[in-house]
Amino acid sequence: MPARRADLLRMRRSAQLLDDRSAPTPVAVVQRMLAVQAQDFGAACWALGARSAGSTRDDVLAALDDGSIVRSWPMRGTLHFAPPADLRWMLGVTTTRMIAGLTLRHRQLELESEDFTRARDVVTEALSGGRSIGRAELMALWEANGIATAGQRGYHLIYFFAQNGLLCWGPTHKTQQSLVLLDEWAPERRELEPDEALGEFLLRYLTGHGPATLKDFVWWTKGTVAGAKTAVAVLGDRISTLEVDGVEYLATAEQADAEAGTPAARKGVDLLPAFDEYLLGYQDRTPVIDDEHFTVVVPGKNGVFAPILVSAGRVVGTWRRASTSSAVTVEPLPFARLTAAEKTGVRRAATAYGRFLGLPAAVTAED
Predict the structure, then answer these.
(1) 3-state helix, strand, coil in the chain (%, to 5)
(2) Nearest-CA neighbor of 194 among 247, 231, 144?
(3) What is the DSSP letter of 212?
């Protein structure tokens, strides 16, 4: 069915819980979105807070501490928050390709099969029985057992074991998290057949990100076009299509049905974190940001995404924060002068951000 870009933005914002904010907890946000990029720990916490009105950073940390949310590398070689019961079937779809792509790097690091075996035995013995360990402490443990960790060897060992479902990040440890055995930390799992898992991957991606193109899904999972087409076939009439500016987008059947008679998008302003799924979760970002502005958000297209200022579904700038132990200050950096309504929206969004952090918030010059 034909649709306008405004319809696309409205549907995406609804899918990402940025309009109705109906997710009652950070756990519900992760369940809805399946995976939320989380290599920047603080930014990822706010990505959940921005989508669950009234939640705090302590709520996110509590969910990580009790295993309701897990953090691992389910796809693209990048850390994500994910639902614990879904992590293993996601890895079942992505791990083979991800590990195969590391063969040369392992050779460069002189990581041999016996290194992985010894490192696995050491970490398994250290963590069995519900124990956890910080990254630096694990490196020291491996070194003490004759396993060199310098030159990214230690990182690649951790990543390899996470990809194979042995480890994940667990309870908070200082400003980050400690490592745990996945089977002990998150024993609940969903068992899906290979084609069923592909279909579930696409369905959950569209539920939390749609409408999106097939190429968006392939990029998000770092999968294959063939796998994506299999997922479409598995889902059948559970997904629908719409056309915007000559491009075909996929949506869940529920999203397409809800589109009829949907009210206009909320005209509000969001202060979304670095690496937020609203911008990062698609290969094609043109619906939400102009090309000339993308290089401001991602300078040099180096993969490092700045926090984004969003107004009526479009990225209209970036922002930065300064904080002390007693307050947080937000400085909007818009691409063009903000309207009076947008300035009010920035102040409202800053207040919500401060509430999430448990700090009073202020806004510097707004245009």
Answers:
(1) 50, 20, 35
(2) 231
(3) B
Beta carbons of 141 and 160 less than 8 angstroms apart: no
- Kind of pairing, strands 361-363 and 167-173? unpaired
H/E element holding 338? none
Taking the complete model, does pTM exceed 0.85, yes or no?
yes
129: buried, middle or exposed (CB in 10 Å: 19+, 13-18, 0-12)? exposed
pLDDT in tens, 35-48: 999 999 999 999 99
DSSP state, 364?
A: -
Angle at 279 between CA 338 and CA 229, to 5 degrees: 150
Phi, psi of 334 (to 5 degrees): -75, 155
State the Rg of the chain over Cα.
21
Question: Rounded to whole angstroms, how far apart are CA atoms 72 and 77?
Answer: 9
How many Cα atoms are found within 13 Å in the side-chain-facing hemisphere of 224? 9
Pick the closest to residue 177 from 185, 209, 247, 318 (CA basis): 185
What's the pLDDT tens digit per position in 170-201? 998 767 899 999 999 999 999 999 999 999 99
How far apart are alpha carbons 272 and 260 in whole angstroms? 28
